[in-house]
Design a protein that fits this description.
single chain, eight-stranded mixed sheet, 22 strands
Length: about 575
């Protein structure tokens, strides 16, 4: 590319053609127009990222894909992964131009920060295991299992119930990790968080903390790997914003659901598989940045399609149900994954910098109709609102039907969004736990803030810089107990023990949740509230506050579909017959 760019400049000054530039670079005429335009796109991209860091998405790959299509050229095969290697120490020079910066108003170096960054080599992508029908004796599969074939459209399986998973012959205790907002931005061979604290974002502008901000995703991933041998998690609850800035950098509906685009495979390999090796399944939700952040037409459908390419990735639809049973311990858990991104689907003329339906940032004629998504920019707000109304009704019906010991919602938008509705789900329909993200920090809420419902925000996965400074000496603007980290849940029939794990592996706070009986009074909940960091009295509200209007104005589903009165005085206890029923 550099050789072509240099030759192009020289020939251009002499009034030559792009073909002549390509021939001067020794590339010949074949495909030269495409190569020239790609070189120009790369140059513009490099200039833009140097001038304004934090701009939306990896537009280069989208450009390359579109140019290939225009010239009828095949996409190159995915790069062959290198053999497994130990982490390679990389100097800081790629990020900080030669040396680690000294403390200044723009940079803070945490004590004990290593002199180099560690880059995890890309691992071989797991092969898809053969599909297994549910076991006749238990009605369950032994692992998380998608339907045999991918759907025609990304939304075809919305609201589906995946085959129940039975984790047999396991004595426990059983652990589940939870993480969100984790997928960083590729800068050459390095993965760095999207820079949300740059001068572009005046409300979040703060000094860059070396040792935390520059390797945020790596730190959290390392803490997960170090804790995994002890906890041995059964699966991970992933609450979305999986790739910054704009999800999979390709246009929705341009790749069949049975296939995976080059861009999607590249991003999954480098940002997911290489960073989180192993075989633990990720039960995943979509975040607003997976649609594109300030647009809706990036390839969110390819994230759903990846379910049929890698058995670790569980996202058969944008909302769905998964039951996990532990027959040896005689308890079960219903997980309801929701797409709660409608608060960021505003009218096209509003809030251009944080609106999936933005008039300024969506291309003219943007549509995801062929993927089952919004038909146009004008349809975008209504599409997200209609789907949220459908999901609200769906969840209320499924909670009423549930006979599992635990009911858990996993979704993107944070604690406090639709607060009134979730309070009712807890009080009337037995919702036990709400797992969320979107705010870029770690917040374990006291249950009395949501009428007895325990909720936590795990938006500090490291894909984007945190809400406030991760410097532990500057906690005055923190809304929770940490800025980067994840959660470790220990689940038994009697209780769920929640631990907040900092990016350095330390346990910061913990809470215990007890089952909420269907229609009964709330059970006592124990939380070590003395360790929780309260929100500052004079601080501005976090970004979810603007959407937390359900206490004042009923949400769309609450208005048209009031919650039913409890049918049973208490939630029925599962019997041995419950574990032998066929999958519903």
């Amino acid at each position: 590319w550099l050789k072509l760019g240099s030759s192009f400049r020289a020939v251009w000054r002499r009034g030559g053609s792009p073909v002549a530039a390509a021939e001067a670079a020794g590339l010949g005429a074949r495909g030269s127009i495409m190569q020239v335009w790609c070189s120009l796109a790369l140059a513009l991209l490099l200039f833009a990222t140097q001038a304004v860091q934090g701009v939306q998405g990896n537009v280069f790959w989208d450009c390359v894909s579109r140019i290939r299509s225009a010239f009828g050229l095949q996409a190159p095969p995915a790069p062959t992964p290198p053999p497994t290697m130990a982490p390679v120490p990389m100097p800081v020079t790629n990020v900080h131009k030669g040396k680690a910066p000294s403390p200044s108003p723009d940079f803070i170096v945490l004590p004990g920060t290593p002199s180099g960054n560690e880059v995890i080599e890309e691992k071989e992508v797991l092969k898809v295991a053969p599909w297994e029908p549910p076991d006749e004796a238990t009605g369950c599969t032994k692992r998380f299992q998608a339907p045999l074939e991918a759907p025609m459209h990304a939304t075809d399986f919305n609201g589906m119930r995946l085959p129940d998973v039975c984790l047999m012959d396991s004595q426990g205790p059983h652990h589940v990790f939870a993480i969100g907002d984790w997928g960083g931005v590729l800068h050459g061979a390095n993965i760095q968080p999207a820079d949300h604290r740059s001068i572009m974002f005046t409300a979040h502008h703060r000094p860059f903390v070396i040792g935390a901000d520059n390797v945020a995703q790596q730190n959290v991933a390392q803490a997960m790997r170090e804790r995994a041998p002890t906890s041995n998690p059964d699966y991970v609850l992933n609450v979305g914003d999986n790739f910054y800035w704009g999800g999979v950098e390709k246009t929705c509906g341009t790749t069949p659901m049975s296939e995976l685009s080059f861009e999607a495979e590249h991003q999954f390999n480098t940002i997911f598989n290489s960073m989180y090796p192993g075989d633990v399944p990720w039960v995943s939700a979509l975040g607003n940045h997976d649609y594109g952040g300030w647009r809706f037409d990036n390839a969110w459908d390819q994230q759903i399609a990846y379910t049929w390419k890698n058995p670790r990735w569980v996202m058969p639809a944008s909302y769905y149900k998964q039951t996990v049973s532990y027959p040896d311990q005689e308890f079960s858990l219903d997980i309801f994954v929701l797409d709660s991104n409608y608060p960021d689907a505003l009218e096209p003329h509003k809030l251009q910098g944080h609106n999936m339906c933005s008039h300024d940032h969506n291309p003219v004629g943007a549509t995801c109709a062929s993927a089952g998504g919004p038909a146009s920019i004008e349809d975008c707000p209504g599409w997200f609102k209609r789907r949220w109304e459908v999901q609200q009704q769906w969840l209320m019906e499924k909670l009423e039907e549930s006979d599992a010991d635990w009911q858990v919602v996993s979704t993107h938008f944070p604690c406090g969004t639709d607060a009134g509705w979730y309070k009712k789900l807890h009080a009337n329909l037995g919702l036990d736990l709400l797992v969320t993200g979107h705010r870029h920090d770690q917040e374990l809420w006291e249950p009395d803030r949501l009428g007895g419902l325990t909720c936590f925000v795990t938006g500090g996965g490291g894909g984007i810089t945190s809400e406030a400074s991760p410097n532990p000496m500057q906690k005055n603007e923190w809304y929770g107990e940490a800025q980067y980290g994840f959660y470790d849940l220990t689940i038994t029939k009697e209780k769920i023990f929640i631990e907040s794990i900092n990016y350095d592996g330390k346990v910061l706070v913990a809470a215990t949740v007890y089952p909420k009986a269907f229609g009964a009074d709330p059970e006592p909940t124990s939380v070590n509230a003395s360790e929780l960091v309260p929100a500052p009295a004079n601080a501005s509200q976090p970004k979810a506050a603007s959407t937390n209007t359900s206490d004042l104005v009923p949400g769309p589903a609450e208005a048209s579909h009031p919650l039913p009165a409890p049918v049973h005085p208490s939630k029925p206890k599962p019997t041995s017959d419950d574990f032998s029923q066929a999958t519903r």
